[in-house]
Amino acid sequence: MLLPRYPIYIPSKGRANACLTAKFLLRDEVPFSIVVEPQEHDVYAANFGEKHILALPFSNLNQGSIPARNWIKDHARALGHLRHWQLDDNIRIIYRRYHTKRIPCAAGV
Known about the structure:
27% helix, 21% strand, 109 residues
């Protein structure tokens, strides 16, 4: 099985029951972290497992996802990663394009 070279982060808020990206990554056994505000930690952990959840050190800044995405970047760098993935939480499936065809593929690829 191929796995991504760089860590995958999913910033999410208010979608603990419908975080589609996490569902397909779990199905394909790809490691990832869902980044949530502290007050949502327990709900997300109940649905996706404690090991997949990272709680932000802040909440309700009313600035959209930018502070969370900046925190993710700092977190990845602090762990020594030169690059990382940030995926939206509403992705159902990943496709590869081959000529004019869209071919579903495993998330690890």
